[in-house]
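fyi for ur records
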Amino acid sequence: MRLAFADPRNMTISPLNMHFGQPAPDVSDIRPSIAKRGVLVPMLVQERFADGAVMPGAFAVVAGARRLTAAQAEIAAGVDIDPVPICILDPGDDAAAIEASLIENLHRLPPDEVSTWEAFAKLIKQGRTPQEIAATFHMSEAVVNRTLALGNLLPRLRKLYRREAVNVATIRLLTLATKSQQKAWLAIHDDPDQVTPVGQGLKNWLFGGAAIPTKHALFSLEDYPGAIIADLFGEDSYFTDPGLFWTCQNAALAAKREALLAEGWSAVEVLETGRSFDSWKHERVSKAKGGKVYLSVSQRGEVTTHEGFLTAKEARRAQAVAAQMAKGTARGEEGRADPKTDRAEVTSNQQTYIDLHRHSAVRAVLTDHPGVALRLLVAHAVAGTHLWRVEPDARRAGSEAVAQSAQASPAEARFQVKHKAICALLGADPERALVGQRREGGAAGAFAKLLALPDADVLAVAAVVMGETLAAGSVEVETAGTFLKVDMGAVWTPDEAFFELMRDREAVNAMLREVGGKKVADGNLTEKVKTQKTILRDFLDGTNDRPKAARWTPKWLTFPAQAYTRRPFATAQRSRAVAPLLRGVRLSSPAATPTSAMAPAVDPNPAILAAQ
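which gave:
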C-alpha cells in the first residue's frame, strides 16, 4: 500500500465499492467541511487500467465514496479543492478492497442487508470462508450465514427488500423457498386482486399448508392409485392424499438418484424435505472432477436438481489430489484413483462406538478358540500392526571375525534350515528375516494364511518367529536355554575367533586347568596369555604330545553359564538371575509336540517335518 495525492476529477467509484451502481449518497453533512478544508481522511483506492496498462493519475475509490462525491460536488460548484490524500492498494488485492469498503460503511452507518450480502458474496468468490468473514467484521458466524442466505433469493426480491417493500420476517422465509415458489409469490404480490401471503400464512403456503400440485410429481400420474382433483378450468390439479403422494414421490426420487449415479456422478445426495440447497456453501465442480448432485425437496414435493457441486472443503481436497495426479503424469507415473470427496457415512464418535463393540465381541469369542488366537498372535508378530512392533534381532557383531564366526556356526545353519522351510510355507522371501516382511493384507493377510495350516505347522512358524525376535544377550536367552538344557557342545566347537578374542590370563589359566589338569595350569601360571592359549589349543587338538580333550565347552557358553574368576561376567549373572524363576517348573507335555487339545487334524507339512 502506498500513500499519495490525487485530483478528484480523475477518480471514480470502484465496482468493488459497496455503493457502486447506486444513486449518489447524501453528502450535505460533509460538503461544508470539504469546501473549507478539503478532504482530510485518505481514501482507499486502486489504480485504473486501460488495455492492460496503468492510467497515470486515475484511480477507483474502494472506500471513501461519500468523500469523493462531496469533493466532486464542490468542484462542480466552482470551489477549488486541493488534491485529496489516497492510499493505493496493491494490484489484484480485490478481497482486501471489498473488506475495506464494508468495514468503512459498518463503522459509519450499518448498510442495508442486501448491500452487505453483495459484499459478502464477492468475498466468498475471492476465496474467503464464512468463518473468516465473521472474524474480520466481528460478527457471529450465524449472522454471516443468514446474510449469505439472501443469495437464494431472486434478484427482484432482493430489490424489494432493499426498498423495504418486503419486511425481514417475510424475506427470511422466502430464502427457504425454491425459485419457482419465489416466482409464484411475486406473481401473487403483483396481482392486486390477491392477498400476498406473509407471516404464518406464508409459512403454510411454503411448507405444506396448501395442496400438493401434480406438476411436482416425478412419477407417472397414470400409475398413481390415489385421487386427484382439478380446478374448474382443468389447468391445475392437486393430490388429495399427501401420504400416498410422498410414498410414490420417494420411490421415484430413489430411482432418479440411481439413474444419476449410473450417469457417472460421484455421488447423489438427497437433502431433507424442506431443506434448501445453499449454493454459496458449494463450488462448481464437473462430473469428471468428482462433482456431486444434490436433490432438494420442498414441502410441496417439488424436486430441484443441482448438478456439479462440492462443498468448499471437498473442492479444495479434489483440487489438491488433481494437482498431485498432474505432477505424477508429468513425471511419467501412473495416475492415482479418483479423489474421494464423499463425507463419511457415520460420525467419528459413532465409528468409535461401532469399533469398540465389535472389538469386545471378537476378543470375547477369541478366548473360546485358543488355536485361532495363537494364529492371530503369530500373524501380529510376523507382520506387525500399529500396536505390535516386533523386530528381528540385528545380531550385531563388534568385528568382522565375530560376524563370520556366528554366521558359520552349526547352530545358525540349523536355524536357517528351519527358517527357509517356514518362508516357503508362507510364501515369504527366504533371504530375509520372516518378521517384518511386508505382505499383502499385512497382519490380516498373514492371519488368513495361518488359518489354513495345521497346528504343528503354526507352532513351527511361531518357533522361527520367536527365534528371530529373541534378543541376543538377554535374560530370555538364558531362561530358554537353561530350561531346554541346550547342549552347546553339540552345536559349537572352538574356532579361531574364540581364541583370538581371549585376553584375560586368569580366565585362560582356569580353562587350561579344565582341559590339562591342575599341574599343567599351575606350571604355566606366569606364562603369557598367548603361550597359555597355545597350550590350550594343543590339548583340544591333541598335538605336541598333549592328550586330546574331547568335546570341551567353556563354562562361558554352557547353560547355565559360569565365570572363571571372581570378577563380573554378565552372562553368568543372567544365568543366576533366572535360576529361581525356573525352580520347580515342568511342562505338562513335551515342548516340541502339540497338546491333545491342539493336535493337528492333518499331517504337518512335509517341508516342516524335513526341516525338523
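The first strand starts at residue 2 and ends at 6. thats all i got for now
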